[in-house]
# Entry
Amino acid sequence: MEDKYLGQLLLMGIPGAELDADTARRLKALQPGGFIIFGRNIKSPVQLRKLMDDLRDLSDIEPILTIDQEGGRVSRLRLIGQEPPNAEALRKKNDLGLIKRHGRLTGQILRLFGFNLDLCPVLDVSHDDTADNSLMGRCYGTSVNEVIEKAATFNHAMRKQGILSCGKHYPGYANADCDAHHELPVINRTVEELEEEEFAPYRAMLPDLDSVMVCHSHYPAFDGDRPRWPASLSKNLITGVLRNQLGYDNGLVMTDDLDMGAILNEVGFEDVIKECILAGNDMAMICHRVEMVEEAKLHLAKLPELVLDDARARIERLKARIVAPTKFSMEAFEAINKEIWDLRVDTLGEEKAKILSVEDGKRSPVETY
# Structure
């Protein structure tokens, strides 16, 4: 594969709120397939839209521009606007109309800022809303059917606004006993249990998901011969189950952040990059260090052409569905922002709506990553 196309297999974070000359030069050389935005990149509405336009301008191929905008504590845009209610609050209110509004408003505000894909919805089934596994407040259901009903409602409404979706975190973190941002969870579920629960939301929703994100948990039922081997590097779970068994052969699959402790503590970086693509992922996500993305591109060049071409073809199929951003204005932002506040009040009530989520990066970096 030509060097200019290798970067298409990389989804990366950037250092700050604007592109200095050195960062712009490096990104121009890398030509990554997409960019993920974090709190460190967000200072004001006007600044954020300019950053998105700048990233698009330096890309020879239209980039994926993505963010974690779920609701509650995992809402990057709450730094400059209202905090939408989280999935748990919407689930407990049990009003599909509110979830549909949440999807519509999420799509509208992301298009306004220049995004084209949201890393959402979460398809994990919650067994314990207080579990310390990074999912607190983020799950649409306590049963498979509830997850499917409520996550699909959000997904449909958001996609209708021209924002692509990403089901996560395949197969799931719900049964994890630790947070993958820090260390690798080992999930001892049988194949039958996984079929019945973890795989079920994906089986139902894959036709309407533009992409899927694979988690960093070890599943001995599928990789028993490779102790502590993450799902994000598992050919059995990605090619064997997700692509072949569940039929997601043409859909885009990406890893969760390869800068997380669950990966860095377990596998050498060169092996991580090679194995994640050989396993069936199309994009490797590296969120925090430009130099690691530059190194990753060198490792990708060592992979077989056929594997690289398959991944690139899926990326191109997704990018063909990207919709251009809407025209930005502060008036448009303020109008959507007001609607998000109204949604928050209608979901939580006036008093609870005033109590915003508390960032607690010590508990889980998912809020601040």
